[in-house]
């Protein structure tokens, strides 16, 4: 008898990955691409928060909204749930018009993406065809033109599909969401979403209990003893495989623990007054109480990871590492399979000035560890540092690239400042700048535009308006 077994029905919202893993989508195409196609089940993703931008909340919104859209079980453990509930926190799916506009924009940018954008300025546009050639091309038969357009459209569609397959992400794999529109309570009426508040002295114990019960409910069904000891290819093994196929897909869940280790887990409730009282009590209790709380945090993450190994669930934990001690912060990555770090990106930083389209850059995402279950060595990512771009309706992640034109402009400005300093010193440079400012302040906008840049040294030009 053959030992071949037909694969059962795939669970909704999952796809097979490498090394026997089952992946779930993060809800964001760029993040799925960074993680290698998605987040494996029975794994823990640790996100080190950025206290300034708060982009970890958007990553949580994507992750939980994707679980709701795929009809998976979702549990959210938070010290301060939003006042409007999950219906006001989770984003709604993007409309068909927005998705089509995104596809059109991606198709328009596709030729530019084939070449590194740093070298665009060296590419010269092809000369336009002659009118005679255009007329001769327009006089061709409609059938040949239709076939050519069909062939071109097929090639472009196949190219987009091939790029999606190469990236490990397809449009049917991940939903599109609009961060500006909440999902609403009516859309969550039939969803298996559970929100639990964990705050106060017993917050970590309550979170451990709720997470343990949730992960235990997602444990895969174990075969009976007769099936386990049956030889491959025997009648008992074949009957057991057929019974497993008839059972259908098993439930899949997602567990989210928000800001574990923050001051909100100490205080009772989520108001600012209670948080200040929790901080005051923490300072009054001393260093020993803080160390005890960090020990409870490490115990919670350890228990969650051990239980997740035996459950069909993907876990996402966000931690404000800046509030923890150096020893605890160094132990956290060892309790997770994948680690992502969010770093602030200030407007006056040098990197922000050198980035292309700096207005949309809000934070930096560093890949510090990737899940390597079933592999002999650790996985490496194509790009370690990425830029988080907030594009009003959605987030975008791209590898850090420096604009060469911005670097040249910055170098020229620095050279001019040094030249002005060497000629007249600080007083001379300041005096010249004051004269130019006073002269340009008394002119109209039209005069400034027609007159061009001011003369060096603040003097008058031959053609000065």
UniProtKB/TrEMBL annotation:
Annotated GO CC locations: cytoplasm; elongator holoenzyme complex; nucleus
Main location as per UniProt: cytoplasm
UniProt entry keywords in alphabetical sequence: Cytoplasm, Nucleus, tRNA processing
Amino acid composition bias (Low complexity), ranges on this chain: 92-103, 128-153
Pfam families linked to this entry: PAXNEB (PF05625)
Lineage: superkingdom: Eukaryota
Subcellular location field: Cytoplasm; Nucleus
Pathway connected to this protein: tRNA modification; 5-methoxycarbonylmethyl-2-thiouridine-tRNA biosynthesis
Region (Disordered): 88-109, 126-153
InterPro entries found in the cross-reference section: Elongator_complex_protein_4, P-loop_NTPase
One BP annotation, GO: tRNA wobble uridine modification
Annotated family: Belongs to the ELP4 family.
Protein's name according to its UniProt entry: Elongator complex protein 4
Organism of this sequence: Chlamydomonas reinhardtii (Chlamydomonas smithii)
């Amino acid at each position: 008898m053959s030992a071949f077994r037909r694969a059962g029905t795939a669970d909704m919202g999952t796809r097979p990955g490498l090394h026997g893993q089952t992946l779930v989508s993060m809800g964001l195409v760029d993040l799925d691409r960074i993680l290698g196609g998605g987040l494996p089940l029975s794994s823990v993703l640790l996100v080190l928060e950025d206290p300034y931008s708060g982009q970890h909340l958007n990553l949580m919104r994507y992750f939980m909204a994707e679980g709701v859209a795929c009809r998976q079980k979702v549990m959210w453990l938070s010290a301060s749930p939003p006042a409007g509930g999950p219906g006001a926190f989770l984003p709604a799916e993007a409309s068909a018009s927005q998705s089509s506009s995104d596809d059109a924009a991606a198709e328009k940018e596709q030729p530019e993406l084939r070449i590194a954008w740093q070298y665009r300025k060296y590419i010269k546009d092809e000369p336009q065809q002659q009118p005679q050639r255009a007329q001769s091309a327009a006089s061709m038969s409609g059938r040949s033109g239709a076939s050519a357009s069909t062939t071109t459209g097929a090639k472009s569609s196949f190219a987009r599909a091939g790029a999606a397959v190469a990236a490990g992400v397809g449009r049917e794999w991940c939903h599109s969401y609009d961060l500006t529109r909440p999902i609403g309570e009516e859309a969550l009426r039939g969803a298996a979403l559970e929100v639990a508040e964990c705050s106060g002295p017993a917050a970590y114990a309550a979170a451990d209990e709720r997470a343990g019960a949730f992960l235990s409910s997602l444990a895969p069904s174990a075969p009976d003893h007769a099936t386990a000891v049956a030889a491959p290819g025997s009648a008992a093994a074949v009957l057991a495989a057929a019974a497993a196929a008839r059972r259908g897909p098993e439930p899949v869940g997602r567990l989210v623990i928000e800001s574990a280790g923050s001051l909100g887990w100490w205080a009772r409730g989520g108001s600012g007054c209670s948080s200040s009282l929790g901080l005051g009590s923490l300072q009054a209790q001393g260093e020993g109480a803080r160390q005890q709380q960090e020990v409870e945090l490490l115990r919670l993450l350890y228990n969650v990871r051990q239980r997740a190994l035996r459950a069909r669930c993907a876990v996402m934990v966000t931690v404000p590492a800046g509030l923890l001690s150096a020893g605890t912060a160094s132990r956290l990555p060892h309790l997770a399979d994948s680690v992502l770090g969010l770093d602030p990106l200030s407007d006056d930083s040098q990197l922000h000035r050198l980035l292309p389209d700096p207005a949309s850059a809000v934070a930096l995402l560093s890949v510090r560890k990737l899940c390597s279950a079933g592999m002999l060595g650790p996985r490496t990512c194509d790009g370690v540092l990425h830029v988080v771009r907030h594009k009003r309706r959605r987030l975008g992640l791209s590898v850090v690239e420096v604009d060469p034109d911005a670097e040249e402009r910055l170098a020229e400005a620095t050279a001019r400042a040094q030249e002005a300093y060497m000629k007249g010193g600080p007083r001379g440079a300041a005096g010249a700048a004051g004269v130019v400012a006073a002269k340009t302040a008394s002119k109209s906008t039209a005069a400034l535009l027609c007159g061009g840049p001011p003369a060096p040294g603040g003097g008058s030009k031959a053609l000065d308006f």
